[in-house]
Specification:
Elements lengths: L13 H12 L11 H4 L2 H12 L2 E6 L5 H14 L9 E4 L3 H18 L7 E8 L5 E10 L5 E4 L13 E5 L7 H9 L7 E6 L7 H10 L6 E5 L1 H6 L2 H9 L5 H15 L3 H4 L14 H5 L2 E2 L4 E5 L9 H15 L1 H4 L7 E7 L7 E8 L5 E2 L3 E5 L3 H12 L5 E7 L4 H12 L4 E4 L3 H17 L2 E4 L2 H7 L3 E3 L2 E3 L6 E2 L5 E2 L2 H14 L15 H4 L20
Parallel strand pairs: 1-7, 1-8, 2-5, 2-6, 6-7, 9-17, 10-14, 11-15, 13-17, 15-16
Antiparallel strand pairs: 3-4, 4-5, 11-12, 12-13, 12-14, 18-19, 20-21
Length: 546
């Protein structure tokens, strides 16, 4: 702290702290200071720089957070710092937001201080661009100028930013730019007069322009060089050892293996795309994690029943008794909290010995928000007990107005029983198909985007919803989308299918006639919260669950 301000001089101002942090971010990590460039760069970083020196167009598909852009900062400094006769030229960096631009410029400042001290400090300037109508506007940008006369400039992520410019273009996280195809076209124009283009990104789906560019180069339809570096490639070439060196940790093979497992666990089912350079099917994940989490609430639990192997062989009376007791203890308290004058719906995705059965009830509020008071997951539950559970719950849904079942395979029997009990006007057995998904999954997405649904905050539920992919233009769950739940059991996007069925049931035009659900509690009992860890005493109101 003494480097920032003397204690007697008073507290550190915001400006002083910002200047201090800027100096520290523009300096090589202490263990690397004074070393030559070949000693500093890890092999995969050096490979990328070698490719940019030999090819006009280089594309690198990479893992997250392996320091590829950090190494490219050295390439930018060496290029802008060189005389024109030695291949020097302007370097134009485009990330998809201003923070990326600032970070890259700081990285370049670090390299410049180490290898090209005859350069300016980082400057902020206003870059003037024209919109599609010809109107001009000034946008904040950053640059470093060199004695060679060239500069490194971090510009706006717009194709027009490259108009009239010449040099070495770096498109960072290209797969996530808003107008990627037009941006690539604008960058390619700089090759005509001897410029260079480097495209860096993690993947964002097989149909993304980034993956299409890679395939064109690999198939020989476009000249260029592809440099690929997965997370494991980076580890093999010293990434974790470098992290330990910089952070002061002790390195060991065991520590590296443990760290690797932790990182992969953090990414979960996204590891293939985020770490292993394997683009997801379709146009990437259809429902993003942020979109899903914005509609999650801790107020609604996920209730889980898993029956042991051999449970289905017990006598009818014993099975019914065990399940009835479980329902009374775990489900009935939540049913008692349902608002009696609101409509209720459900979706049911069926599974028996492999995948889960998921029952997703919905309460449609006066504000038209579709709220799941709870979600019920059943693993290895016998057919008869799934019928028992379904009837026990649906009989107690106030103003029950419709349900939709997965009607394929074994699920057809339960859908048929439900139709016999509640009527075909209220219950539909859905034969899930591409046309059905194409009609209904976008409606689920629209609900998430509009925040007009709410459901349990649960990692497995989120994972299931993230299994939707665009397959030949249809948002659906691939047959190969199998994951492991927190309980170690198999999942296949089951909660995602139940959610789509539930929303479809709620948005159906069906109107209930001649059906009045039984009320199982008095008004006074209704507002008594269940006891135990899941008790919602802290959020219960007489307006319903929210």
């Amino acid at each position: 702290m003494s480097a920032v301000a003397d204690a007697e001089a008073g507290p550190v101002t915001a400006e002083e702290w910002a200047a201090h942090r800027r100096r520290t971010t523009q300096a090589l990590p202490e263990p690397l200071a004074g070393k030559a460039l070949p000693e500093i760069l890890l092999p995969y970083q050096a490979e990328l720089l070698a490719a940019t020196s030999a090819h006009a167009l280089v594309v690198t598909d990479k893992s997250r957070r392996i320091g590829a852009t950090w190494g490219v900062g050295a390439d930018a400094v060496l290029t802008a710092g060189a005389q024109k006769s030695a291949g020097g030229m302007d370097v134009l960096y485009l990330g998809y937001n201003l923070d990326m631009a600032r970070e890259f410029i700081d990285t370049c400042a670090m390299w410049a201080k180490a290898f090209a001290p005859a350069c300016s400090a980082v400057e902020e300037f206003l870059f003037v661009e024209q919109d599609a109508n010809g109107a001009e506007r000034a946008i904040k940008a950053f640059r470093i100028t060199f004695a060679s006369g060239f500069e490194i400039a971090a510009l706006s992520s717009k194709p027009r930013s490259l108009r009239g410019r010449q040099g070495y273009v770096i498109l960072d996280e290209f797969a996530f730019h808003d107008d990627a195809e037009e941006l690539l076209k604008a960058a390619m124009a700089l090759l005509i007069w001897g410029g260079k283009v480097l495209v860096i990104s993690t993947h964002n789906g097989v149909d993304n322009p980034f993956n299409q560019l890679i395939q064109e180069i690999r198939e020989g339809r476009r000249p260029g060089k592809v440099v690929r570096c997965t997370f494991d490639d980076a580890l093999d070439q010293g990434l974790y050892q470098r992290i330990c060196m910089v952070t002061g940790r002790d390195w060991s093979p065991e520590a590296e293996a443990k760290w690797r497992d932790e990182i992969r666990a953090f990414y979960g089912e996204d590891a293939a795309e985020e770490l292993d350079c394997i683009p997801s099917q379709g146009s990437g994940v259809y429902l993003t994690g942020a979109l899903i989490e914005a509609c999650m609430t801790p107020r609604a639990p996920v209730l889980r029943l898993a029956c042991p192997k051999g449970f289905e062989l017990l006598g009818d009376a014993e099975r019914e008794s065990v399940v009835a007791d479980w329902l009374a203890e775990n489900v009935d308290p939540w049913l008692k909290l349902l608002t009696q004058d609101l409509r209720h719906y459900y979706g049911f995705d069926f599974g028996r010995s492999g995948d889960l059965s998921v029952f997703w009830p919905i309460e449609e509020g006066a504000d038209l928000v579709l709220r799941a008071p709870f979600i019920l997951e059943l693993r290895n539950v016998p057919f008869r007990q799934q019928e028992q559970i379904l009837f026990r719950i649906v009989d107690r849904l106030p103003r029950f107005s419709g349900g939709k079942h997965d009607g394929r395979g074994n699920g057809q029997f339960l859908a048929e029983y439900a139709q016999q009990r509640y009527g075909a006007m209220l219950i539909e057995a859905v034969m899930l198909s591409q046309p059905w998904y194409l009609e209904h999954v976008p409606r689920l997405k629209a609900r998430l985007e509009d925040r007009t649904m709410a459901f349990s905050r649960d990692a497995d539920v989120k994972s299931d919803l993230r299994q939707f992919r665009m397959i030949r233009g249809v948002p659906m769950i691939p047959q190969t989308a199998e994951t492991k739940g927190a309980d170690g059991g198999q999942r296949h996007g089951d909660a995602g299918v139940a959610a789509v069925l539930a929303v479809a049931a709620a948005e159906d035009d069906t109107v209930a006639y001649e059906y009045t659900p039984a009320r199982v509690s008095s008004a006074d009992r209704f507002w008594q919260a269940p006891r135990g860890d899941l008790g919602p005493e802290s959020w219960q109101t007489k307006r319903g669950l929210w």
